[in-house]
């Protein structure tokens, strides 16, 4: 009895004093044990293009998604893309081209939804890739919104920028350290007052062209920045097929929902990925950016790119 309680006491003190020193090591990362040891840069994430621009109304031509952000995340989306504009209320919104055309609400509300997901899913690494066409200031406009949403503390801060292919942490390390959100901005992140967790996208990611209307998705490097060579970048395929609804002059290009089941199917995604592998230092794409991500079979394609059986 005595020795038993002594044992219990020592077990208790090991828990109380020892446990905080050893971090809980993640055993399942983004849904798969196999991904825990992979570098962040060696994983393929399915992304939702214009994630905020969701509508179930087929007449909403400016929509690029059918289901809302929490549903996208529950399906397995791990890259959320959004385009920020200042609304008429003076705060940052996610809007498609302009807030008059499609207003997806404030960035603050959006990030609140993201935080709810992160809290409920502690073993998930998530990437946020936002565009900043109006050049909103990172330290005075963007950072306070991330701070208020409680996401800044979860954001990964690299030891130095840019991060090359081999210098990203593993998913397991990101989850164990709690720094499991990676934030990229396409413009304005490398100005005079940078924010350590808001990373300049094109120094670390290159993209294929956008507004593609060719269903064979020929691969090329479109947007990229130095100083790292392209093979030290991660890369994103903009895998959404557009149609020109007014084929006069420059036309009017909108995303084509009727084609989404095919475009987001395994064959189309793998063909696009394979076409890019030679440009991507023989690596698979890191990010597959899709419209209407609830359609097709993108998550099976990602499993295949990871060499995993379908989950
Ligand atoms: C990526 O992960 C796979 C599977 O673990 C591994 O075989 C490959 O060597 C890794 N690639 C790099 C560049 O680390
Ligand atoms: C990648 O970055 C690390 C750390 O900055 C550096 O030690 C390494 O030499 C770099 N590798 C390449 C291939 O540039
Ligand atoms: C058509 C398409 O998906 N285009 C997008 C490609 O990705 C960039 C985001 O980084 C967007 O700006 C484009 O709209």
UniProtKB/TrEMBL annotation:
GO MF entry, a single one: phosphoric diester hydrolase activity
SUPFAM superfamilies from the UniProt entry: PLC-like phosphodiesterases
Signal sequence region: 1-18
Pfam families for this protein: PI-PLC_X
Keyword Membrane included in the entry's annotation: no
Transmembrane is among the record's keywords: no
GO biological process, one term: lipid metabolic process
Keywords assigned: Signal
Name the record gives this protein: Transcription factor IIIB 60 kDa subunit
Organism lineage: Eukaryota, Fungi, Dikarya, Basidiomycota, Agaricomycotina
């Amino acid at each position: 009895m005595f020795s038993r309680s002594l044992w219990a006491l020592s077990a208790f003190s090991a828990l109380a004093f020892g446990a905080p020193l050893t971090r809980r090591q993640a055993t399942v990362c983004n849904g798969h044990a196999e991904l825990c040891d992979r570098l962040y840069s060696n994983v393929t994430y399915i992304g939702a293009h214009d994630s905020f621009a969701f509508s179930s109304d087929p007449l909403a031509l400016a929509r690029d998604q059918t289901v809302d952000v929490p549903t996208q995340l529950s399906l397995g989306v791990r890259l959320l893309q959004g385009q920020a504009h200042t609304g008429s209320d003076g705060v940052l919104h996610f809007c498609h081209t302009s807030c008059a055309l499609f207003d997806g609400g404030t960035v603050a509300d959006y990030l609140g939804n993201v935080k709810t997901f992160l809290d409920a899913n502690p073993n998930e690494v998530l990437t946020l890739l936002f565009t900043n066409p109006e050049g909103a200031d990172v330290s005075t406009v963007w950072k306070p919104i991330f701070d208020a949403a409680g996401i800044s503390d979860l954001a990964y801060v690299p030891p130095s920028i840019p991060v090359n292919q081999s210098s990203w942490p593993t998913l397991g390390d990101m989850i164990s350290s709690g720094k499991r959100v990676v934030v990229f901005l396409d413009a304005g992140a490398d100005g005079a007052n940078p924010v350590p967790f808001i990373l300049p996208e094109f120094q670390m990611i290159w993209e294929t062209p956008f507004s593609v209307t060719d269903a064979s998705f020929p691969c090329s490097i479109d947007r990229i920045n130095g100083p790292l060579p392209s093979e030290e970048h991660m890369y994103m395929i903009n895998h959404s097929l557009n149609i020109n609804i007014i084929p006069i002059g420059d036309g009017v290009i909108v995303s084509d929902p009727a084609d989404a089941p095919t475009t987001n199917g395994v064959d189309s995604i793998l063909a696009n990925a394979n076409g890019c592998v030679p440009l991507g230092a023989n690596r698979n794409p890191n990010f597959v950016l899709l419209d209407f991500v609830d359609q097709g079979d993108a998550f099976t394609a990602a499993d295949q790119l990871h060499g995993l059986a379908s989950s």
